[in-house]
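Worked example 3. Consider a protein that binds glutathione.
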Amino acid sequence: MIDLYYWPTPNGLKITVLLREIGLEYRLYPINIGKGDQFDPEFLSVSPNNRIPAIVDHEPEGGGDSISVFESGAILLYLAEKYDQFLPTDQRLRVQAIEWLMWQMGGLGPMLGQNHHFNRYAPEDVPYATKRYSDETLRLYAVLNRRLIDRDYIAGSYSIADIAIYPWVNRYEWHKTDIDRFPEVKRWYQTIGERPSVVRAYDEAKTIDVGNVASDESRRVLFGQTDVTIDQAYAVPKGSE
Ligand SMILES: N[C@@H](CCC(=O)N[C@@H](CS)C(=O)NCC(=O)O)C(=O)O
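Given these inputs, the predicted complex is written out as structure tokens:
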């Protein structure tokens, strides 16, 4: 059984999609990141970066203690390798799937995250930042569009590279991208969106009440973090010294 620490965001959805594609049972533990659940000691013990998603695999290969994994890209790799699915076996295609997974983790995700921040959440208009991340979003879409010319999927057959990228493209309205400018991305996006596991993962996401993510309380929790936040989160609770 896999425990999944989750919130219905692109990084969370990557994991529910893969778990469903493989057909694995999982227990879902909602971590309300707008309310500060990401600082609970139990969660920090599996995810020291106070970010979802994270998993605990109670039946690791070869037995023994449970294995916990944080960082969505590491989780996708862990599950794909363990179950030998959604990661090509051919060496050339496998490295391409990993390259594009890293591209998502190091580029698309962080840049679109900043785009969403300045386009949706920043309390003031910051034209330099909005332009910087909007331009970078368009550049990344153009890179993806080129990759998908003459290809159904990113690296051979449907893989964890597609699974990682899809939930971010799914937010194209948030990052104010006209998807019609990127026809190959649009075709790929529509094909993946029809997969039963993807549909079910998104249906499951809708069952979680995310509350008002733009509330003052959520903004403070999500956008007010510094080194002090981390020190406080890890502080030994009074009386337990
Ligand atoms: N690189 C990380 C990013 C994870 C991440 O940013 N998660 C967000 C939700 S999508 C989160 O947990 N935010 C909580 C916070 O900012 O405190 C991954 O891919 O797992």
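Take a moment to read the result before moving on. The chain has a mean pLDDT of 96. Residues 7, 9, 11, 33, 38, 50-53, 71-73, 105, 109, 222 surround glutathione (CB under 6 Å).
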